[in-house]
Write a structure and sequence with these properties.
The chain is of the alpha/beta class. The chain contains nine helices and nine strands.
Length: about 200
């Protein structure tokens, strides 16, 4: 599918509003978009954007981002990203791709399989999904609409970097994004590291 066919209509910035957030010392700018494959993807922009800003492309994780689940490192990665990007200036692209793109209900089904000893990627396959069906073409379009074509990417996932490059964004440098390692997520993070290859975690 071409990038043009991926979009329902011509993509554009829909709205921008200052947003004071408790996890940052000052306000950020929340940007919404029209014409993407999901109407509720959004960006949080911190400070002035340089010619090559620090960017985190973060897939939604209600359990980790909102409730602080220890089964994953998503919430702690988001916290670390906000801290680093606020200091450096840059953006967080928040993509509504819950559960690695399979949705919340299916993610909980996958959790049930994982409790029986099935790996995270195998659980997706048993439910009839690809290992990781996420798509980053919307993220590339969001960056272009923000006037960004070259980035430093805050990620532990080499596939994300490759997908953005394929969509026309230059990834000048990949910066590891640390998350919290716990007894509850150790096996999950080990499996992600073996598959994705850039993982760095802390024990804080």
């Amino acid at each position: 599918m071409s990038a043009r066919a991926h979009r329902v209509e011509t993509a554009a910035v829909r709205a921008q509003v200052d947003l004071p957030v408790s996890s940052a010392s000052g306000p950020c700018r929340l940007v919404t978009f029209s014409g993407l494959s999901h109407a509720d993807h959004f960006a949080l922009v911190f400070g002035e954007l340089s010619a090559c800003p620090l960017v985190r492309v973060h897939s939604e994780c209600v359990t980790g981002d909102v409730f602080g689940s220890l089964r994953c490192d998503c919430g702690t990665q988001l916290d670390a990203a906000i801290s680093r990007i606020e200091e450096a200036g840059g953006a967080i692209l928040y993509l509504r791709q819950e559960g690695r793109g399979i949705g919340l209900a299916a993610k909980i089904d996958a959790y049930l399989l994982q409790q029986e000893g099935v790996g995270t990627f195998e659980a997706n396959r048993r439910l009839g999904f690809p290992e990781d069906p996420r798509d980053y073409r919307d993220a590339a379009e969001m960056l272009r609409l923000l006037g960004i074509g070259r980035i430093e990417l805050l990620t532990n996932n080499r596939h994300k970097s490759a997908a953005l490059e394929a969509a026309g964004i230059t990834v000048a440098r990949v910066v590891p994004c640390p998350g919290k390692l716990t007894a509850h997520n150790a096996a999950y993070l080990r499996e992600k590291r073996e598959r994705d290859g850039i993982t760095k975690h802390t024990g804080r």
